[in-house]
From TrEMBL:
Source organism per UniProt: Fregata magnificens (Magnificent frigatebird)
Region (Disordered): 518-548, 614-636
Lineage: Eukaryota, Metazoa, Chordata, Craniata, Vertebrata
Assigned GO CC terms: G protein-coupled receptor heterodimeric complex
Name recorded for this polypeptide: Gamma-aminobutyric acid type B receptor subunit 2
Family recorded in the similarity comment: Belongs to the G-protein coupled receptor 3 family. GABA-B receptor subfamily.
G-protein coupled receptors family 3 profile domain location: 236-518
Length: 696
């Protein structure tokens, strides 16, 4: 019985066997609130005490197993106060019976015997009337047990019997007596009447609050298995949705900031269209959280199956849009600064949009193939039964909804492989452009931080989410927090530095460190960064070549500075020594003038120098004026007097032109006879006197 999960047991046995059965029921724990025993109710009073010694159970254990059993027996006498066919009520009959019985042993069947005599009398009376009415030649005295025709008449007459006797209503159906059944329950070592069943009227009467069940409700006839959907907690969904809404508000604020300041140099150089795509990808990722939290408790099965596909598409496209735009920006910086062949080619935002579109096209191809070949379906996973937390006599079988298909592992592997390659490509670009020192162009540091955080969180989130498949609240919480963290950290790393820079120093992000060359810093010359005053997005492809040329010219200026100082010292010491100035000094001065003409084409001093050079052509320092070839050598253009006169005009201009920018004499020092090292003070000069790269 226990192996077949039988809960309601009907037993037909005597008192001796009843003791053994209840003893076994106690050992097998087949009693209590989950079981109901129904046994005969005609046992003697305190019947178990006579047979307790024949069993191996203790009296208290036996009584514990017997507690609550229901006894079924016929009603000896009717409890209704109604006159019977004999003219007596059941109570009057019982009183007369006991008086005539005296001290003799009573039988519980005496009322049925009394009513039985009345049944026989009424049957014979009906049979005699029938015979007299139908067959006058046949009499009741002719009856024998082989006369089937007369037996049929008796049976029909008995089935028509219907009167109220001392045992209740007397009726027969197919030869069976339809009487009243009494129910008693064993409560606290005694039997208590709890109700009765009238077979004639087919009614069950339960005495108010008399029956007691050991549980909260009557026991079931078997283990009731109730399937319960494990759903996402509404408070948890509300909290995570609120965090998601805050993230979308933050993304909207970044979008407003990016659009409003799109004409600012800092934002314009950082590709505002790509920034908009990054924000769009982040908002799509945020939106997928709302869909991940909808399960069977909120939507129908068909809608849930549709959500399986929609949320996968939104999250995949959002990820590719955000990181694809970020990596496309980094690729442009890498192409400009690392690929010399592209020096004269402009990479516009339209090309970056094509790159992002290509990444999205790959995503769409994968997702469309996934949907056509092996679409996601709603599957239900059933877990082991659990007891009811409320203590009811039922078992809970948890079920959980999943979005799965036949080859789920293969499709996830394809998506993860593509996204992993995309992140590796982004890491490569960030590493290659790590030394580009223009913050407005170079986001490599922040991209590296973002890829690191996203990669770590995705790996941890995927692992924990897989291990908590049977706990939807934990799984949804982890997935939502991972998406919120990754999207938020990515947007903040991209836009917060720009926001801070634009508020504090808008020009700092578009400029490089300036070089300073001195004689005591020769060892650091090769490590000094290039200088750029402004960068135009349309011509950034020329930056690398111009930086290299600028660096070469600065080194040349440093070398020529030494020669110039030597010439100055010689002129200061003895004017006569100028006749011994070497020819290469003239050539060096000519180079200085040429460099000045190249590096500062817009300088105000250029006009003065040019006019002076037009009057005194410096093209060939060692050559003579043809008009003076026949004159005295003293008046030759290369005579010491002419050289000193020219230097008296050129040296102040040269001091103003380049010496202050490399740590030389102050621009106010106009004397050609004072050494640059002897200048008592140095000051920062206007940008027009700096050696710079023009045209950017």
């Amino acid at each position: 019985l226990q192996g077949n999960d039988v809960r309601i047991i009907l037993g037909q046995f005597d008192e001796e066997m009843a003791v053994k059965v209840f003893c076994c029921a106690y050992d097998e724990e087949m009693y209590g609130s989950k079981y109901q025993w129904i046994i005969p109710g005609w046992y003697e009073n305190l019947w178990w005490e006579s047979w307790i010694n024949s069993s191996q159970c203790l009296s208290k254990n036996l009584l514990a197993a017997m507690e609550g059993y229901i006894g079924v027996d016929f009603e000896p006498l009717s409890s209704k106060i109604i006159k019977t066919i004999s003219g007596r009520t059941p109570q009057q009959y019982e009183k007369e019976y006991n008086a005539k019985r005296g001290d003799g042993q009573s039988s519980k069947f005496h009322g049925y015997a009394y009513d039985g005599i009345w049944v026989i009398a009424k049957t014979l009376q009906r049979a005699m009337k029938y015979l007299n009415a139908t067959n006058k030649h046949q009499k009741i005295e002719d009856f024998n047990y082989t006369n089937h025709k007369l037996g049929k008449i008796f049976l029909d007459a008995m089935n028509e019997t219907n009167f109220f006797g001392v045992t209740g209503q007397v009726v027969f159906r197919n030869g069976e007596r339809m009487g009243t059944i009494k129910f008693t329950q064993f409560q606290e070592r005694k039997e208590v009447k709890v109700g009765e069943y009238n077979a004639v009227a087919d009614t069950l009467e339960i005495i108010n609050n008399s029956i007691r069940f050991q549980g909260l409700e009557p026991p079931k006839d078997k283990t009731i298995i109730q399937e319960e959907l494990r759903k996402i907690s509404l408070p948890l969904y509300s909290i995570l949705s609120a965090l998601t809404i805050l993230g979308m508000i933050m993304a909207s604020a970044f979008l407003f900031f990016n659009i409003k300041n799109r004409n600012q140099k800092l934002i314009k150089m950082s590709s505002p269209y790509m920034n908009n795509l990054i924000i769009l990808g982040g908002m799509l990722s945020y939106a997928s959280i709302f869909l991940f939290g909808l399960d069977g408790s909120f939507v129908s099965e068909k809608t849930f199956e549709t959500l399986c596909t929609v949320r996968t598409w939104i999250l995949t496209v959002g990820y590719t849009t955000a990181f694809g735009a970020m990596f496309a920006k980094t690729w442009r910086v890498h192409a400009i600064f690392k690929n010399v062949k592209m020096k004269k080619k402009i990479i516009k935002d339209q090309k970056l949009l094509v790159i992002v579109g290509g990444m999205l096209l790959i995503d769409l191809c994968i997702l469309i193939c996934w949907q056509v070949v092996d679409p996601l379906r709603r599957t239900v996973e059933k877990y082991n039964m659990e007891p009811d937390p409320a203590g009811r006599d039922i078992s809970i079988r948890p079920i959980l909804e999943h979005c799965e298909n036949t080859h789920m592992t293969i499709w996830l592997g394809i998506v993860y492989a593509y996204k992993g390659l995309l992140m590796l490509f982004g890491c490569f670009l960030a590493w290659e452009t790590r030394n580009v020192s223009i913050p407005a162009l170079n986001d490599s540091k922040y991209i590296g931080m973002s890829v690191y955080n996203v990669g770590i969180m995705c790996i941890i989130g995927a692992a924990v989410s897989f291990l908590t498949r049977d706990q939807p609240n934990v799984q949804f919480c982890i997935v939502a927090l991972v998406i919120i963290f990754c999207s938020t950290i990515t947007l903040c790393l991209v836009f917060v530095p720009k926001l801070i820079t634009l508020r504090t120093n808008p020009d700092a992000a578009t400029q490089n460190r300036r070089f300073q060359f001195t004689q005591n810093q020769k060892k650091e010359d090769s490590k000094t960064s290039t200088s750029v005053t402004s960068v135009n997005q349309a011509s950034t492809s020329r930056l690398e070549g111009l930086q290299s040329e600028n660096h070469r010219l600065r080194m040349k200026i440093t070398e020529l500075d030494k020669d110039l100082e030597e010439v100055t010292m010689q002129l200061q010491d003895t004017p006569e020594k100028t006749t011994y100035i070497k020819q290469n000094h003239y050539q060096d001065l000519n180079d200085i003038l040429s460099i000045r003409n190249f590096t500062d084409s817009k300088d105000g001093e250029k006009a003065i120098l040019k006019n002076h050079l037009d009057q005194n052509p410096p093209a060939q320092w060692g050559s003579s004026d043809p008009s003076r070839t026949s004159k005295d050598p003293i008046e030759d253009i290369n005579s010491p007097e002419h050289i000193q006169r020219r230097l008296s005009l050129q040296l102040p201009i040269l001091h103003h032109a380049y010496l202050p920018s490399i740590g030389g004499v102050d621009a106010s020092c106009a004397s050609p006879c004072v050494s640059p090292s002897a200048s008592p003070r140095h000051r920062h000069v206007p940008p027009s006197f700096r050696v710079m790269v023009s045209g950017l």
